[in-house]
Amino acid sequence: MWFRRDLRVDDHPALAEACAVGEVLPLFVVDPAFASAGQPRRALLHDCLAALRDATGGALVLRHGDPVDIITGVAEEVGATTVYVSKDAGPYGRARDAAVADALRAGGRRLRGVGSPYAVEPGTVRKDDGGAYAVFTPFSKRWRATGWADPIDAPADPGWIEAPSDPLPERPEIELEVPDPAAAGARWQEFRAAGLDGYADRRDLPAVDGTSRLSPLLKYGVLHPRRLLVESDPSIDGHRVFQSELAWRDFYADVLLRRPDTAWENLDRRFDRIDLDTGAAARTKFERWCEGRTGFPIVDAGMRQLATTGWMHNRVRMIVASFLVKDLHLPWQWGARWFMQHLLDGDLASNNHGWQWAAGTGTDASPYFRVFNPTAQQERWDPTGEYVRRWIPELDSSDYPAPMVDHAAERREALARYQAVKAAAR
Ligand SMILES: Cc1cc2nc3c(=O)[nH]c(=O)nc-3n(C[C@H](O)[C@H](O)[C@H](O)COP(=O)(O)OP(=O)(O)OC[C@H]3O[C@@H](n4cnc5c(N)ncnc54)[C@H](O)[C@@H]3O)c2cc1C
Question: Labelling 423: which of 115, 255, 385, 387 has CA 20 to 30 A away?
Answer without folding.
Answer: 255
